[in-house]
């Protein structure tokens, strides 16, 4: 089904423009959403990367500071004296106190160091610290029980991830740097543990302008999580997922499936590794968070688009109305015209195709009005003709009756000739009227001619001869009534005028489609110029009538030809189509009407 | 007719569109389109500013004390945060030892906590160095005894708000004393009674333990000793060295003798003592039977062995002994960002019945008399014990002395170090005296 043929033009115009705009808009929005979200991810990655490496740098400074502190401390805190054999209790006490004091000052003067633990490998006797805030001097046996002892056993130093430190001051979360202490002779002396305040590192990593839903994780060079306790290895998985790339910085879009990380669309994962510490910071930002900007953009575009669409709808409505207005004008004009058939007023200021349509309609309707008028005229005439025919139907009875009476009067008077004439006249009347039919069979036409010629024979007495030769096959064909009679009458009245004898011959030749009647007389003939003498004018009406009728009914190549005969006299040839069926004649009749009106 | 119908249809379309936009707006939340259709969608504004408009405040607060005081204070802080959700705390606390080391380092770095627990001995020191905020306004002290308010003043400006009445006395192991069949120390006992009590108890205990604490290092106790002998405090109010050679030699020699006799523990044992620490306090461990203590520490003491401990006045001489003092103060650091919030907290701390119901006498007898009156019926035996010591000390109390500027360091560092050398027998008392005198010159 072609919509352009089945829907209303207004709906088509309105629907198509609005639909097109909608599609266009959707494409633009979708395009801007996808491009901008890509752009947003790129931007976010760029800035997060900058921020991360900056944070990592700051963190690195802090961490290196801690490590340096530990190193400096390991040089300053000499524990050899505890091993000396001639040590006194006071010296031991003083030494512990000094070390404690020294370490305490380090913690008190730093905002990130929570406290320092010192495990001494020598037996230093009982001691209760006086610097609760910052320092604990612990026995070496305790070190062996620490859960992180394995981390330090084989190396000189290590960072320990976030854990909870339980002391008399309550529990605190710390990251710890552990360093082994050696004497100048390279002898192992103990371990110093610097506890860094985890909240301070958290704060440092959180940075400024951090987003609530952004999570940053910190991993040491071995990929161990430093700031969150690893629950069922989830963070390790994150670290190894990032390490797959072997790139010190970058980004991936990933999601978590059953604890493992795979490419996906849940999080933007940006990481940065510090050059010196090899610590890696990984930032996870929900992907939705990043694309929210472009979503907002798309939303804004949608709103603007909807507003534009409304404007477009108004404009479309206006345009569609302007286009369909003339059509509706025309439709209503046509409707009105078909009802009351009066000229309809159409706008005259259209100069385009609509104007042409209006003009066309105007002239067509004018013509139709004329046609209707002529039709009405014809109907009137037809009615008149019918009335006159009816009237004419009355006359024959009166004429027949009168003729019959005359016949009887002639018989009574012994006028046999007159009686015969009257009888023939009656037969002529009957055929001439033939119930008002315009078409009769050729045999009836010929009988009519025969009656006429017999009457003339009676008047002439001897001397007039006639001959009628007609193919039997033609007798049943149809011919307009009294087509041949005027020419026969002409031949008798004018051709043989003033002659004592004459001969008239009527022949009919025909093939399947055409019939030719030839009426020949041996009379005076007609002048070579074809102009009939004035005396023959009387019969002129009848000939003219036939000519017009034949012309009207059939036109060329049918018609009447009058020409002189070489041997004297006149020959009239009447050509008509061979009409075997009266229905053809009716069709022809309608044809006649159309033609006469042209 | 047709035309009218069409425009109605159009209107309907527009209305539907606009309602779509409006719903899109309220759905989208953060977008304001600014066209007329969405002007009604005011419900979508983000709510990041709450009605009160108060900024989040984190107050750092530092105090010393025993576990009871820590627990009670933490609970009070929690209550305050519940009532003032915009205020949170970063508490730091420890025992007395180390407290001043930490505070002095932090103050030097201008990184002192917002709210500092202050002691009389250090008030002048910190106030004179302009490290404390003037608290004359913003805290309601109208329900306090004026004399108590005045203890927080330095050069007529209020730098510290007293948190409680306190008395310096002694705590002893009542249970053990009764078991040994000894006469418990009585209010108003003398130094001679004190030494004798030590020797008597030692005789009953034998080698298994000690009786008295080694107070060599505690110059404030020696100060009281000297005052009870009528010789004044170890330093004069205007900062002059005021130790009496004879009295001090008597004091340090007696202690030395008692150490030899095993009445006082040897230095190695003595230095492991940590006041009111359940595992390290020598009294709590049963290593000794008696130690110096403040009335404000009564609940902590009781907690070491509920019902088994008792308080008694500081031994006296010809003159009275022990003193009444303000237990401790709240001061505000001059470097605080949150002056108003800090004052508001202190005001609540001293004047709120709820707060004091939690705190009890962990910082001495509450200073707001109305609050105290409301609390008294509900006081525990331990609280009453503290109040009793204050009451008993009052008639014989020496005037409370604060160290002049600089002298806290002499007391806490130099004197202690010299005394420790005596304890460890590194030097003789005579040698120590010379060191003390020469050191004191640095402070005069």
From TrEMBL, chain A:
This is Histidine kinase. The chain crosses the membrane at residues 12-33, 297-320. Pfam families: HATPase_c, His_kinase. Residues 321-373 form the HAMP domain. Signal peptide: none annotated. GO terms for molecular function: phosphorelay sensor kinase activity. One of its GO terms (cellular component) is plasma membrane. It is a multi-pass membrane protein. It is found in: Cell membrane. It comes from Paenibacillus abyssi. Keywords: Cell membrane, Kinase, Membrane, Phosphoprotein, Transferase, Transmembrane, Transmembrane helix.
């Amino acid at each position: 089904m072609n919509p352009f043929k089945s829907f209303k033009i207004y709906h088509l115009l309105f629907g198509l423009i609005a639909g097109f705009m909608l599609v266009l808009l959707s494409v633009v929005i979708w395009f801007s959403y996808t491009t901008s979200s890509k752009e947003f991810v790129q931007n976010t990655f760029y800035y997060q990367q900058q921020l991360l490496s900056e944070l990592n740098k700051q963190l690195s400074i802090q961490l290196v500071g801690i490590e340096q502190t530990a190193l400096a401390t390991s040089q300053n805190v000499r524990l050899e004296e505890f091993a000396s054999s001639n040590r006194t209790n006071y010296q031991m006490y003083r030494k512990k106190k000094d070390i404690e004091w020294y370490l305490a000052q380090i913690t008190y003067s730093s905002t990130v160091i929570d406290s320092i633990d010192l495990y001494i490998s020598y037996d230093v006797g009982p001691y209760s610290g006086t610097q609760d805030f910052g320092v604990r001097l612990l026995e070496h046996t305790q070190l062996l029980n620490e859960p992180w002892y394995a981390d330090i056993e084989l190396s000189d130093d290590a960072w320990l991830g976030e854990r909870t430190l339980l002391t008399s001051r309550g529990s605190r979360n710390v990251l710890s740097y552990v360093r082994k202490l050696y004497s100048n002779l390279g002898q192992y002396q103990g371990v110093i543990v610097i506890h860094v305040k985890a909240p301070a590192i958290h704060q440092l990593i959180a940075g400024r302008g951090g987003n609530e839903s952004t999570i940053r994780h910190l991993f040491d060079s071995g990929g161990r999580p430093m700031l969150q306790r690893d629950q069922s290895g989830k963070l390790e998985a994150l670290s190894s997922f990032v390490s797959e790339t072997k790139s010190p910085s970058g980004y991936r879009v990933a999601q978590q499936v059953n604890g493992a990380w795979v490419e996906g669309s849940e999080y933007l994962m940006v990481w940065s590794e510090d050059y010196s510490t090899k610590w890696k910071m990984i930032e996870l930002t929900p992907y939705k968070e990043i694309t929210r900007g472009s979503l907002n953009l798309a939303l804004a575009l949608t709103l603007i688009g909807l507003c534009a669409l409304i404007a477009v709808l108004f404009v479309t409505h206006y345009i569609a109305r302007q286009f369909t207005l003339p059509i509706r004008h025309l439709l209503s004009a046509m409707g009105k015209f078909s009802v009351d058939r009066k000229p309809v007023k159409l706008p005259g200021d259209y100069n385009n195709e609509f104007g042409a349509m209006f003009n066309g309609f105007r002239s067509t309707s004018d013509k139709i009005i004329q046609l209707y008028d002529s039709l009405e005229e014809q109907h009137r005439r037809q009615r008149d003709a019918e009335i006159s025919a009816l009237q004419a139907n009355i006359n024959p009875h009166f004429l027949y009756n009168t003729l019959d009476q005359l016949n009887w009067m002639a018989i009574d008077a012994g006028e046999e000739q007159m009686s015969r004439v009257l009888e023939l006249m009656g037969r002529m009347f009957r055929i001439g009227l033939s119930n008002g039919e315009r078409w009769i069979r050729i045999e009836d036409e010929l009988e009519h001619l025969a009656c006429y010629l017999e009457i003339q024979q009676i008047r002439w007495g001897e001397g007039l001869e006639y001959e009628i030769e007609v193919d039997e096959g033609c007798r049943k064909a149809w011919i307009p009534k009294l087509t041949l009679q005027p020419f026969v009458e002409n031949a008798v009245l004018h051709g043989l005028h003033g002659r004592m004898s004459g001969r008239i011959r009527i022949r009919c030749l025909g093939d399947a489609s055409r019939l030719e009647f030839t009426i020949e007389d041996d009379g005076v003939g007609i002048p070579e110029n074809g102009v009939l003498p004035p005396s023959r004018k009387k019969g002129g009406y009848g000939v003219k009538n036939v000519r017009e009728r034949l012309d009207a009914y059939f036109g060329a190549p049918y018609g009447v030809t009058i020409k002189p005969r070489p041997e004297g006299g006149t020959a009239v040839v009447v050509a008509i189509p061979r009409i075997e069926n009266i229905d053809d004649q009716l069709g022809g009749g309608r044809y006649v009407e159309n033609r006469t009106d042209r | 007719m047709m035309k009218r119908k069409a425009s109605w249809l159009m209107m309907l379309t527009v209305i539907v569109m606009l309602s779509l936009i409006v719903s899109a707006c309220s759905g989208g939340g953060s977008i304001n389109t600014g066209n007329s259709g969405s002007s009604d969608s005011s419900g979508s504004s983000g709510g990041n500013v709450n009605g009160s408009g108060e900024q989040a405040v984190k107050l750092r607060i530092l105090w010393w004390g025993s576990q009871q005081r820590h627990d009670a204070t933490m609970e009070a802080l929690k209550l305050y945060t519940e009532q003032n959700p915009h205020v949170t705390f970063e508490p730091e606390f420890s025992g007395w030892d180390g407290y001043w080391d930490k505070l002095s380092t932090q103050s030097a770095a201008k990184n002192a906590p917002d709210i500092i627990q202050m002691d009389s001995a250090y008030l002048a020191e910190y106030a004179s160095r302009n490290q404390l905020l003037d608290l004359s306004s913003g805290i309601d002290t109208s329900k306090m005894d004026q004399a108590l308010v005045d203890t927080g003043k330095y050069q007529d400006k209020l730098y510290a708000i007293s948190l409680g009445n306190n008395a310096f006395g002694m705590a002893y192991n009542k249970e053990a004393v009764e078991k040994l069949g000894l006469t418990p120390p009585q209010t108003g006992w003398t130094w001679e009674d004190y030494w004798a009590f030590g020797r008597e108890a030692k005789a009953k205990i034998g080698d298994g333990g000690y009786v008295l604490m080694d107070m060599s290092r505690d110059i404030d106790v020696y100060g009281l000793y000297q005052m009870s002998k009528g010789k004044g405090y170890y330093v004069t109010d205007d900062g002059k060295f005021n130790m009496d050679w004879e009295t001090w030699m008597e004091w340090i020699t007696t202690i030395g003798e008692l150490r030899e006799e095993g009445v006082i523990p040897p230095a190695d044992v003595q230095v492991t003592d940590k006041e009111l620490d359940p595992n390290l306090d020598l009294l709590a461990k049963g290593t000794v039977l008696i130690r110096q203590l403040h009335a404000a520490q009564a609940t902590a003491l009781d907690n070491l062995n509920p019902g088994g401990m008792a308080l008694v006045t500081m031994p006296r001489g010809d003159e009275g002994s022990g003193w009444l003092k303000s237990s401790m103060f709240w001061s505000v650091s001059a470097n605080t960002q949150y002056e108003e919030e800090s004052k508001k907290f202190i005001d609540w701390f001293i004047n709120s019945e709820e707060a004091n119901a939690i705190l009890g006498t962990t910082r001495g007898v509450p200073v707001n008399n109305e609050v105290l009156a409301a609390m008294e019926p509900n006081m525990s035996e331990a609280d009453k014990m503290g109040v009793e010591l204050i009451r008993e000390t009052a008639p014989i109390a020496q005037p409370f002395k604060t160290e002049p500027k600089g002298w806290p360091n002499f007391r806490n560092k130099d004197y202690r170090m010299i005394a420790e050398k005596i304890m460890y027998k590194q030097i003789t008392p005579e040698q120590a005296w010379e060191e003390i005198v020469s050191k004191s010159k640095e402070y005069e």
